[in-house]
Amino acid sequence: MFSTPFLDIPPLAAAAGTVRLPGSKSISNRVLLLAALASGTTTVHDLLDSDDTRVMLDALAALGCTIDRTDEAGLRIEGLGGRLRNPSASLFLGNAGTAMRPLTAALALLGGQFELRGVPRMHERPIGDLVDALTQLGCHVDYLGNPGYPPLRIHPVALESLALDAPIRVRGDVSSQFLTALLLALPLASHGGRDIVIDVVGELISKPYIEITLNLLARFGIAVRRDGWQRFTIPAGSEYRSPGAIHVEADASSASYFIALGAIADGAGIRIEGVGADSIQGDIRFVDAARQMGARIDSGPNWLAIGRGAWPLAAIDIDANHIPDAAMTLAVMALYADGPSTLRNIASWRVKETDRIDAMAHELRQLGATVEDGPDFIRVHPLPAAGWRAATIKTYDDHRVAMCFSLAAFNPAGVPVRILEPHCVAKTFPDYFETLFSVAEASRVPVICIDGPTASGKGTLTVEVARRLGYRYLDSGSLYRVTGLAMRRAGLDAEPAHEAAIADLASSLPLVFSEGNVLLGGEDVSDAIRTESAGMDASRVSALPAVRAALLGLQRGFRRLPGLVADGRDMGTVIFPDAELKVYLTASAAQRAERRHKQLISKGISTTIADLRADLEARDLRDSSRQVAPLKPAPDARLLDNSSLSIEQSVEEVLHWWQEVQPFESA
Ligand code: DC
Q1: The pairing of beta strand 417-420 with beta strand 392-393
Q2: CA of 510 to the centre of ligand 1 (A)
Q3: Which of 57, 96, 218, 549 is deepest in the core (most CB within 10 A)?
């Protein structure tokens, strides 16, 4: 996951490959609640692991559910069987509507004392219509803040005292989650001899989400009868029964980004595993809308294959009420269409993670687009190549804003897109950007090169700059060190007679960098390559031209999305001569000797500063006068003398230079 303040997505040119998507949020949280309410044990496979499911799991654990991980990445949940183990709890539900609404209904019926709260935005998301319906029934729910909104306090009631004779009326035109919440929870009260009837007041929105609810209730033994979309009946004597095991489909809303990717990007097409056109999720109907815009889509059980069809895409005018979440993706696809596209009947966007109509309109305009919007619609005009701007996209703590705007990186103007707070995707798809980068190709992946004399602090600076930008990191010195080690192990020496053999080794190193460790053929050699003698060997093999040539391809291979910070000799001259930024880091020999002295002392190695300084000066001379790859700044490198700078100041300076060569306005 990217935990950086922003993520710059370079202009993307093509995409191809297969993605496996995380489980559906809507299915995951419904299944978790049903498994908790049921009697018996349910094993849940392919559950989404995200912020919203984590708050649900934490809440269920706080209520006394036993939850264990199984061997095959499943989760085993021991149901409460309708009886609470902890009759009072204070639950934090983040910004998860799929946890807040159904838990409110279930806890109001389970008979305990509870407090439910969330992040500030959750306290602006309406829940009054659900509380009204519960109050009608005789449940006792108080608002702890603004009336109509969380946080809530729930008081116990006796199930026998509930007014279940008359139909329970609930509004369906603000959020379908109110009806879902009642449908999931009311079987708790169906032990008596009477059916429980729910009447929907107003036009029910987001009907496909109700289909998911009904489908999953059926899997747990509750056969709800439905009369149109107005009346729902839970038969008398309904009881939750665990299906034993249940698989969560991949998230169809998450699939929308990759369906769009296949429709927009040039390339051999995108295959999505984990969800197919027969999905129970309403957002799968996004497939129809994408087809209408020109995408070529095939599907089978649990897979979709998407390729570019019409290009530019065909403009669309659509009632998007049935695909409220996925329709945000259409709003970005509309930038690539042959005319203005209109998404209608989307008033529910205004009460989601953020006011999504405002958010989408504002950020699309940042890209340069012309957008019209109203209480329940948005119209997006296509953006010609000359109109695109390198925009900084605000994401409003809304995962879907972050994800759908990544598609703007396919713009014909070749400008990058900066996504602020990219970690908000963790709500439903923590590895979204990594998954995107695994199939997308950039015409140019940005590189920052950092070189400088020994002990100048370039390694530390490189790691930190990479971390701050969310970029990959190449410590090229370690490649020479590993080559030196491989040479020793093969019984070779760094002499001209062995040069070809060592170069051969270097060109096929079974090397893996993993979480800061260096693995050679599966063995962790991180320590072995850091010894004094390994440094000597590295220095000697690095003077062999054939070895340098052999490592060229390996080093260039590190240039992958979203970008690279590379440290070492030759970086800005031979390996990445076209790097956007080259930094040559220096510090006075006196300073470097002092720093190295501190380093060695902290490792318990005793030396004198004078000795170290003499060594450094000798090495500088050797390094800069050697024949092969002498140490010298690239002609276009920016010099950074960090003698009197802290690490943080050096990092800031490099990031400042980086910002200067970016087309973005300052974030
Ligand atoms: O940075 P380091 O100490 O890990 O580098 C090990 C050796 O490899 C050192 O002698 C410099 C050399 N080297 C090189 O010649 N070219 C590079 N790109 C990186 C390191």
Answers
A1: parallel
A2: 19
A3: 96
Find all residues with CB under 8 Å of 312, minimum gap 6, and list them: 336, 337, 338, 382
Question: Would you list the DSSP string of 236-274?
Answer: TT---B--SEEEPPBPHHHHHHHHHHHHHSEEEEEEEES
Domain range summary for the chain, segments of one domain joined by +: 6-22+250-442, 25-247, 447-660
Q: Confirm whether 325 is a catalytic residue.
A: yes
**Tokens at residue 136, please?**
């009608």
Distance 652 CA to ligand 1 centre (A): 25
Between the CA of residue 399 and those of 52, 97, 101, 191, 394, what are the distances in Å?
A: 11, 14, 19, 40, 11
Phi-psi region of 604 (alpha: psi -120 to 50; beta: other; left: phi over 0): left
Residues 6+ apart with CB under 8 A from 189: 109, 159, 162, 164, 196
Active-site residue, selected from the candidate residues 46, 129, 283, 325: 325
> What is the pLDDT averaged over residues 9-28?
95
Q: Identify the band that residue 666 occupies on the pLDDT scale cut at 50, 70 and 90.
A: low
**Ligand 1: which of 569, 582, 592, 599 to mutate, judged by most atoms within 8 Å of the beta carbon?**
569
Q: What is the DSSP string of 39-50?
A: BSEEEEES---S
Contacts for 631-636 with beta carbons within 8 Å, 24 or more apart?
Answer: 631/451, 631/453, 631/569, 633/451, 633/572, 633/582, 633/584, 634/449, 634/451, 634/571, 634/572, 634/573, 634/577, 634/582, 634/584, 636/572, 636/582
- Atom 15 of ligand 1, nearest CA residue: 542
pLDDT digits (tens, 9 = 90+) for 44-71: 999 999 999 999 999 999 999 999 988 7
Do the domains 25-247 and 6-22+250-442 match in fold? yes
Q: What is the DSSP string of 294-306?
A: T-EEEEETTEEEE
Dist. CA 490 → ligand 1 center (Å):
21
Query: For residue 193, what pLDDT is reported?
Result: 79
Report the residue among 474, 542, 599 best suited for mutation to probe ligand 1: largest number of ligand atoms under 8 A from its CB. 542
Ranges of beta strands (E only) in 359-400 are: 371-374, 377-380, 392-393
Question: pTM for the full model?
Answer: 0.87
Three-class DSSP category at 227: strand
Mean pLDDT of 526-553: 92
Strand-strand pairing, 511-514 and 517-520: antiparallel
Cβ atoms of residues 229 and 207 within 8 Å: yes
**In whole angstroms, what separates CA 256 from the centre of its chain?**
14
Q: What is the CATH number of domain 6-22+250-442?
A: 3.65.10.10
User: Ligand 1: residues within 6 Å at CB?
Assistant: 476-478, 480-481, 535, 538-539, 542, 568-570, 629
CATH class of segment(s) 447-660: alpha beta
How many residues does the structure list for the chain?
667
As a whole number, mean pLDDT of residues 656-665 equals: 93
Can you list the alpha helix ranges (DSSP code H) found in 440-531? 458-469, 476-489, 499-507
Q: What is the Cα 460 distance to its own chain's centre?
A: 27
> Which residues pair with residue 155 across a beta bridge?
140
Q: Domain 25-247 has what CATH class?
A: alpha beta
Write out pLDDT tens, residues 262-302.
999 999 999 999 999 889 999 999 999 999 999 999 999 88
pLDDT of residue 290: 98
Distance (Å, whole) CA 156 – CA 134:
12
Nearest to 475 by CA among 549, 551, 400, 588: 551
Interstrand relation of 523-524 and 6-9 (parallel, antiparallel or unpaired):
unpaired
459 Cα nearest atom in ligand 1: 1
Q: Tell me the torsion sign for CA atoms 300, 304, 307, 309.
A: positive
Residue 514 has pLDDT above 90, yes or no: no
Look at residues 476, 486, 489, 491 and name the one whose alpha carbon lies nearest to residue 548.
476
Among residues 69, 20, 82, which one has the least CA distance to residue 43? Answer: 69
